User: Fold these one by one.
Assistant:
Number 1:
Amino acid sequence: MHYKRILLKLSGEALMGSRQYGIDPIRLAEYASEIKEVVDKGIQVAVVIGGGNIFRGVSGASNGMDRVQGDHMGMLATVINGLALQSALEDAGIQTRLQTAIKINEVAEPFIRRKAMRHLEKGRVVIFGGGTGNPYFTTDSAAVLRAIEIEADVILKGTRVDGIYTSDPEKDANATKFDKISFQDVLNKGLKVMDTTAFTLSQENELPIVVFDMNTKGNLLKLVSGENIGTEVNL
């Protein structure tokens, strides 16, 4: 296998499937199946999910809500998504642990780095909820931070497009895809991979990012097996 320990970053919107908001149980089961294929190969998997399908702090703030309050609501939304994914993974026969950056002891463990790494070593999927636990930081930043802390080999950012393009492929028919690109080139070309804080943290810690289409069946397993899926951002 190409990687030993991965951190999979999923957007909250991805869980909506064909719905307008909330969680689509069919999409959830599909993701659980994809993750199970990878776990069955002995790869250690951690997951960070956004909360945009339920609530976004930024959009709340734009409607007059206090930003800090809105971000705390967004953190709770990621915990709801984490619980949903945990349930789907356990239905698929995978042992999981949900760890959160804010203490909700009745539903999840608090994030403890050594504990998280031990769970991974035992073959459990660890889901990190609650973002970083701080307002003004996105779940992209949480994904990079946790990946560095647990010494993941790579961040796999599952999206609905199959990589990084010169422009938005959904709007520009002439957009061309990069197979590999450096951190510096992403910055120079003004391409959107993650928010700036997360991207800079990844670059400084020499942690590669692969952007790929999570909604195509089998892509995750192909990627971790070393196939050229998506776009790799590296030094």
Number 2:
Amino acid sequence: MNILEFGKIMTEEVKDALGNAVDVEFKEITKNNGIVNHALIIRKQAENVAPTIYIDDLYDKFKGGKVIMSIVNEIVELYNQYAPGENVDVSFFTDFSKVAGLLAFKVINIYKNEEILRDIPYKRFADLALVPFCLVHDERLGRGIITIKNEHLKEWEVSFDELWENVYENAPKILPLTFGNMAEYVPALKEMPLDGVLPEMFVFSNSSKINGAGVFLYPGVMEATSKALQSSLIVIPSSVHEVIVIPSEKMAVDPGYLYKMVKEVNCTVVEDGEVLSDNVYYYDKNTGKMGILQEEMSI
């Protein structure tokens, strides 16, 4: 039995278990970097919010010998735990003046997400797409995001430039930059004999630590960091959640080494859906410009 057949069986069994007042839909969901997940979307007919329960791990349990009805019971328990119980008020989303102050962005790889990006009014930096979203919070459901689509701009009668003016203004307010020395994030580094190969490194993310890699593209961040460190900067994409910023004038390795390191980490450590880029970026303190670091470049 493949995952699609398993999903169809789960759809019918979960619907039987929950009754006619609930609609259950099996869906393939394309996530970041083209990763396809499989989920059941379970909605009470009178409600506007539907929990999404991913079943890929449950399929692995089935292949490992777990019986169907035991998995069905697990899904029902998850649904009962996360079902909203009443409608969530999303009426604010029809009014751009109410949405504007809740706008931020995340970054993903352009080339690995071409299909997703067709419907999104994204901005581009090098091989990265800046994807705008609205940060929402519900007392019962917690924090979530609504990705801004081209259709939303038409409904709001808002231009691309007006959207991004508000994104850049509000992202640093609602998801501010956070940073710390690399050794604070990875204590083991304090014990490693780096011998000057890697100098002082800083991890940049946002206050939620989720989809925070884009903070290095907040207005003024690279300029202020460069002035504080009195150096041009190298930006290494750790994942979609954070980047590593290094003062380039203290580097004792060539760019080729950095590229090799990034590609190796992306292949062996970072989950496929969280890989940002195999490239390394460079901010020039003299010109104030930033782009992809060339492997043959002298730094």
